[in-house]
Design brief:
- The protein is an alpha/beta fold.
- The chain contains 10 helices and 10 strands.
- Helix 2 runs antiparallel to helix 8 (201-220).
- The longest helix has 24 residues, at 31-54.
- The structure holds nicotinamide-adenine-dinucleotide (NAD).
- Nicotinamide-adenine-dinucleotide is lined by residues 3-5, 34, 37-38, 41-42, 66-72, 89-92, 95, 122-125, 128, 146-148, 191, 193-194, 282.
Length: 302
């Protein structure tokens, strides 16, 4: 219970309190997990989940996506590609600026909610869509969550006597206001794609490979390489996971010349970027580059 973010925080807290009995790999924050599971998987499965449950047409629909992290970016790109008019809400100015530069209007939910056709939450936060927003939504507005378990929409506020719930088909409930207004709630606020569509096996392969390699690395590591602490995956391992999946696309990597490698100050065989390269997480823990292991001179099993 509590989702991956909570589990990650608990892991770091255990480590801080010196209560970890074994070394741990934080695979959730590896590049291959974040960039593929969160971004590309959600980019594809948001549309599938919405279609399977509502058969909605996307062209011209006004959609608010709450949160412009990896999941939000994927959802926004997919919805925009099908002609939806997409608005973004954000608390982080950097992500908000990214949304602006990608061509999305950044607004507060309260500013747009009256004319919105769909609301998608992707924040990992709680009560991002509250009763005050639900009360203002127009008839037929679709509300769903692509983020954190079932906390993002304040469902408790909808379980009151004046509102009627009508279960219209699997994973679809109509919440009916006293004046007849209906809100279409998908998967009772749980993750839309995991509840209502399928997850591409290619993405699962990337995530599962990352997890398996992390376990093998911990198992094979010589005494002393890892202490009772939390580590991010070595960058080289992230690169290895990606390289294993390149064959699917018949993609051919360019090899650095000796001269180019020397110029960049890196090994011809990777890692190709430093650990601090474009820190991709807002968590204070995962921005600690020292939590990576130094792989520059290290031999791995691959
Ligand atoms: N549906 C899926 O298949 C799937 C896949 C991966 C991750 N997730 C979950 O999705 C959630 C988001 O993941 P992510 O990788 O995009 O995280 P992220 O941290 O990159 O992005 C979340 C964004 O939401 C913003 N935010 C936080 N509170 C907000 C609020 N009240 N209003 C507006 N914006 C707010 C943050 O500033 C951040 O930019 C996590 O809970 C994650 O576990 C779901």
């Amino acid at each position: 219970r509590g989702g991956k973010r909570r589990q990650r925080e608990e892991l770091y807290q255990l480590s801080k309190a010196s209560r970890l009995c074994v070394p741990a790999m934080n695979v959730n924050d590896s590049v291959t997990k974040q960039k593929f599971d969160n971004l590309y998987c959600c980019k594809e499965s948001i549309l599938d989940g919405l279609k399977r449950t509502t058969d909605v047409m996307f062209g011209g629909k006004q959609v608010v996506v709450c949160g412009y992290g990896e999941v939000g970016k994927g959802c926004c790109a997919a919805l925009k590609a099908l002609g939806a008019v997409v608005y973004v809400t954000e608390v982080d100015p950097i992500c908000a600026l990214q949304a602006c530069m990608d061509g999305f209007r950044v607004t507060k939910l309260s500013e747009t909610i009256r004319h919105i056709d769909m609301v998608v939450t992707c924040t990992g936060n709680k009560n991002v869509v509250g009763r005050e927003h639900l009360d203002k939504m127009k008839n037929g507005c679709i509300v769903c969550n692509m983020g954190h378990s079932n906390t993002e929409i304040d469902l408790a506020s909808l379980r009151t006597t004046e509102l009627k719930w009508e279960h219209v088909r699997p994973q679809v409930d109509h919440i009916i206001w006293p004046d007849g207004k209906r809100i279409v709630l998908l998967a009772e606020g749980r993750l839309l794609n995991l509840s209502c569509s399928t997850v591409p096996s290619f993405v699962l392969s990337i995530t599962a490979t990352t997890q398996a390699l992390a376990l093998i690395e911990l198992f094979n590591a010589p005494e002393g390489r890892y202490k009772q602490d939390v580590y991010l995956l070595p960058k080289k391992m992230d690169e290895y996971v990606a390289s294993l999946h390149l064959a699917t696309f018949d993609a051919h990597l360019t090899e650095l010349t000796d001269d180019q490698a020397k110029y960049l100050g890196i090994s011809k065989h990777g890692p190709f970027k430093p650990n601090y390269y474009r820190c991709r997480q807002t968590s204070p823990h995962t921005q600690n580059a020292h939590k990576h292991t130094d792989v520059s001179n290290r031999k791995y099993f691959f």
